[in-house]
Specification:
four-stranded antiparallel β-sheet; 13 strands
């Protein structure tokens, strides 16, 4: 993967077509006025996104565009900050608590157990640096996890073991995945680091079944020796019905600027009740308890989501608008978002099944797949396919791994005719 430049890495292969400067395509301006948002009407939902209608947007999951309610919240906060920054910071003193409350309503659990970050990568780095490991304890992760997990563990200097959960992703089964991960557990395993939806293959892990297997493994162990299940959920948050509380994990990390279509540069770390006791904050927080510790030379207070949230000044207009992103999804209905995404994924897969030159890498079963569909085209490199799609006004990406595939993601920002247009180009 030596040719994977920083720019190509960040955009997931979209640079293969010479950037987004498509022949004959111009970016359409967002409409000045929109009819009232009707969350029950998919056309109205799509109209909230100011995406160019000259491009079929199958890579919106890379870095979200802001739907109108989120963009309006950002603009409102920015205007007030620009007008009188000091005063508005005082007015918004409880804004981060409101974001935590909105996240807890969506994810389950308690608002106090949610830390706010700037991205999935930041959340993973903070979590794996902060989890306490005693000599001899190990981390178990997988061959399929992304750079951010592997690198965060490497930088931590942890003793890491990796397992391969499947050989052919299209033929993967929940039973095989759970059995392979269970076989990797040992009494020394303190952390299990997995990703809910693999961005290299589109495989969705059976996290609840994995959590149950880990619970059985943990049963005879002392609390300090039990394995903690940590989940990178960035390609599931905003597209899956299951909540973090449903999964049975200890920690869940995600950016909110992908499938949730939240403000760019925002993310969360969710912890089940009591799990923060296993971690120490990595950066000073700008919280009352942290300042009290400093001013009073007091012992460190117990870790909470607030204490784990890095302090300093952030792009507050974006962070505060995360609550509006959760509200946008709740208004539509998380079950409806998941069903709509599945409808388009199934429509795409049905069309791909008729194309002999296409080899789909993502499992068909809904329990093992989400919104991503990864595939190969016989006789063409993934970069060449993505370039061809871009030339036809279709935005797709190449998986930024050693294992490279074409990757597309139908979502609430696409429609049936977009899926049909993608299939028409692939038929060529």
């Amino acid at each position: 993967m030596a040719d994977l430049t920083r720019r190509r890495f960040l955009v997931g292969g979209t640079a293969a077509a010479g950037g987004l400067a498509l022949a004959g395509c111009t970016t359409a301006a967002a409409p000045a006025e929109l009819p009232p948002f009707d969350p029950g009407d998919w056309a109205s939902v799509r109209a909230q996104f100011p995406l160019s209608r000259e491009v079929r947007q199958f890579s919106a999951y890379v870095l979200a565009t802001h739907p109108r309610p989120v963009a309006d919240a950002i603009a409102r906060h920015r205007a007030e900050l620009d007008k009188d920054t000091h005063a508005y910071l005082g007015v918004q003193a409880g804004a981060e608590d409101a974001v935590r409350a909105a996240a807890a309503q969506y994810l389950g659990g308690r608002a106090s157990d949610i830390a706010l970050t700037d991205s999935t990568t930041m959340g993973l780095g903070l979590l794996y640096a902060g989890l306490r490991l005693t000599p001899g304890q190990q981390v178990l992760t997988t061959e399929h996890d992304f750079f951010s997990t592997h690198q965060a563990l490497r930088m931590r200097g942890a003793d890491v073991r990796r397992v391969r959960l499947y050989d052919d992703p299209a033929a993967a089964s929940a039973e095989e995945i759970v059995a392979r991960l269970r076989a990797g557990l040992t009494p020394a395993t303190r952390v299990v680091a997995i990703t809910w939806v693999h961005s290299v293959t589109g495989v969705k892990l059976p996290v609840r079944a994995i959590a149950d297997a880990i619970a059985a493994h943990n049963a005879p162990l002392a609390p300090a020796d039990r394995a903690l299940l940590c989940v990178d959920a960035v390609h599931a948050l905003g597209v899956e019905v299951a909540t973090a509380a449903d999964l049975g994990c200890d920690f869940l990390v995600s950016g909110t600027h992908k499938w949730l279509f939240g403000p760019r540069g925002t993310g969360i770390v969710w912890a089940r009740e009591g799990a923060w006791a296993a971690a120490d904050p990595v950066l000073p927080s700008f919280s009352g308890p942290a300042f009290g510790e400093w001013l009073n030379d007091a012992p460190p207070p117990p870790t909470t989501g607030e204490l784990f949230t890095p302090g300093g000044y952030h792009s507050f207009e974006h962070r505060w608008a995360v609550a509006d992103a959760f509200a946008f999804h709740r208004a539509i209905g998380r079950d409806r978002v998941a069903a709509r995404t599945r409808e388009q994924v199934d429509r795409l897969r049905a069309g791909l099944a008729d194309l002999r030159q296409i080899r789909v890498r993502t499992p068909a079963a809904p329990e093992l797949s989400a919104g991503l569909v990864c595939f190969d085209v016989d006789g063409a490199t993934p970069d060449a396919v993505v370039a061809r799609l871009h030339a036809k006004g279709i935005a797709a990406t190449v998986t930024p791994y050693r294992e490279r595939h074409v990757r597309v993601g139908p979502s609430i920002a696409t429609a049936d005719d977009d899926v049909d247009a993608l299939l028409d180009v692939l038929r060529e």
